[in-house]
Design goal:
Layout: H1 2-14, H2 20-28, H3 39-50, H4 53-67, H5 71-95, H6 102-109, H7 112-146, H8 170-184, H9 187-213, H10 228-243, H11 259-288, H12 299-306, H13 310-344, H14 363-379, H15 387-410, H16 426-439, H17 443-467, H18 469-479
Helix pairs in contact: 3-9, 3-11, 3-13, 4-5, 4-10, 4-11, 5-10, 5-11, 5-15, 5-16, 6-7, 6-15, 7-8, 7-13, 7-14, 7-15, 7-17, 8-13, 8-14, 9-11, 9-13, 12-13, 13-14, 15-16, 15-17
Length: 480
């Protein structure tokens, strides 16, 4: 009996939960972040995170290898599937306006250990995403300057790989440093710069749609579904990954002036804008060029060169650079807020969550993100490790979707400014869609994910378990 009581006590300790009221109190107290964002800023964050390599690169690959002109259906299907998860995030974000995204939601629903696992998972997602996107930005920038006859020395043109003569990715380091400086300027200033870049990027995409529409040949849409409906579904599975990134918007909850109203608007409107742009670009792209010719690294610019509109192709190159820049910015922003939230709860060193007095900027979280992204992108060839970004994101989506249902059952009394419609259907469809994508990832990806998971458990039991702020509060309540 003594053993069972100790086991029950250990279980209660590992899965201790933060109440919604306590989480909201944390966000509003002296340790909370500055309230400076509105619905428009959130929408721009979401569009900034999603519209990047997906629209400028992946559209061509999906059309050529999976869907053909039916890529329009692939992006619609994947967008709807992603919307299921977005609805779940919107309910949580309006109910719990605090930094940390899925980590914070998991703390209130599943308890501390599960929250740490989710947080550790998101550190992997954001950290690798920052590195992958920074490396991609470097490659695209170098391709752009080659057009002007400029070349970086081979040694500093890519990550460490002696067999190819590369040792350090200089431009990845430069862009990570520049965006870190922007983040250090404060959330209000950062969001303004992001808004400008996103608006220019949207303008470039619309320019392509308008110009390209005059060169659409309806015969290029025949056959519409050359790979059959199975190809459309496979294309949707690939296209789904183009939408990943909107969840970083929920990291901004604590910095929104009216989160109960603005968070659902920001999450859902950004996803809607991205879906419309993806569908429109896909429709025009496959109408301009036969889908069989679109398996290139720059399909949008290629289509414009194909119809001899080189001047527009130059603007598209600018849009692609800005697109990748804003994706990197939002990923870095999400990472800084995640470090801040976990540190504030004591599961990482408390110094990481220290804020500046004036603008309440988490300086040490930003510096940690800068260091992590710099080392990974400048020195480590990522290759297949990029798939870990996908598995981490999908795992978080599944947990948030399940959490919505669990909290509806356990705490129906909590005020919800936004509710997922058909709550026993939509979260289930979200889990189904994300689960399907997870099981189709490679075995190596799963092994690496499990290794990361084990490392996280070691860190939790050697540090987080003993320094947990919630654990300290529970002890004080017992002894008072």
């Amino acid at each position: 009996m003594e053993f069972l009581s100790r086991l029950a006590a250990l279980y209660a300790t590992l899965f201790r939960k933060k109440s919604v009221d306590y989480t909201v109190h944390q966000a509003k107290g002296n340790k909370g972040l500055q309230k400076a964002l509105g619905a428009f800023d959130l929408t721009m964050l979401g569009v900034g995170a999603v519209i990047g390599t997906g629209i400028f690169v992946l559209t061509g690959v999906v059309a050529a290898e999976h869907s053909g002109p039916a890529i329009v259906l692939s992006f619609l299907l994947s967008g709807v599937a992603c919307a299921f998860a977005a609805l779940c995030y919107a309910e949580f974000a309006s109910m719990i306006p605090a930094s940390g995204s899925a980590y914070t939601y998991g703390y209130t629903v599943f308890g501390e250990l599960f929250a740490w696992i989710l947080g550790w998972d998101l550190i992997l997602e954001y950290g690798l995403a920052c590195s992958v996107v920074a490396s991609g930005w470097s490659a695209y920038f170098q391709e752009l300057i080659r057009g002007f006859g400029l070349h970086l020395p081979t040694e500093i043109s890519s990550a460490f790989n002696p067999s190819t003569g590369t040792y350090f990715d200089l431009m990845a380091t430069v862009i990570v440093f520049a965006l870190s400086l922007i983040l250090l300027s404060g959330v209000k200033e950062s969001s303004r710069i992001n808004n400008i870049m996103v608006l220019i990027k949207i303008g470039v995409v619309i320019l392509f749609i308008v110009v390209g529409a005059f060169y659409v040949q309806p015969t290029n849409w025949t056959p519409f579904m050359p790979f059959g409906f199975d190809g459309v579904v496979q294309g949707a599975a690939t296209a789904f990954l183009s939408y990943i990134g909107f969840d970083a918007v929920s990291s901004a909850s604590e910095e929104v002036r009216n989160p109960q109203r603005d968070m659902p608007i920001g999450l859902l409107s950004s996803l809607a804008v991205c879906m419309v742009l993806y569908v429109a670009v896909s429709l025009v792209l496959t109408g301009m060029v036969p889908y069989t010719k679109l398996n290139v690294g720059d399909p949008v610019a290629f289509a414009l060169r194909f119809v001899h509109q080189d001047w527009v192709a130059g603007f598209v190159s600018l849009g692609a650079i800005l697109g990748i820049t804003t994706v990197l910015f939002v990923m870095m922003y999400g990472q800084t807020r995640l470090f801040f939230a976990i540190s504030r709860d004591g599961l990482l060193p408390k110094s990481i969550s220290r804020l500046t007095k004036g603008k309440k900027t988490p300086v040490f979280s930003i510096l940690l993100t800068w260091g992590m992204a710099t080392i990974f992108s400048a020195l480590i060839p990522l290759g297949e490790l990029a798939q870990l970004v996908n598995i981490g994101t999908l795992f978080a989506f599944i947990c948030v979707s399940i959490g919505v249902v669990v909290l509806r059952i356990k705490r129906p009394d909590i005020k919800r400014n936004f509710k997922v419609p058909f709550v026993y259907v939509i979260p289930f469809l979200s889990v189904l869609a994300c689960g399907y994508l997870m099981i189709n990832l490679t075995g190596q990806t799963w092994i690496r994910f499990i290794i990361w998971f084990v490392i996280g458990l070691v860190i939790y039991f050697t540090f987080g378990f003993r320094h947990s702020e919630l654990g300290k509060r529970k002890k004080q309540e017992i002894h008072s």
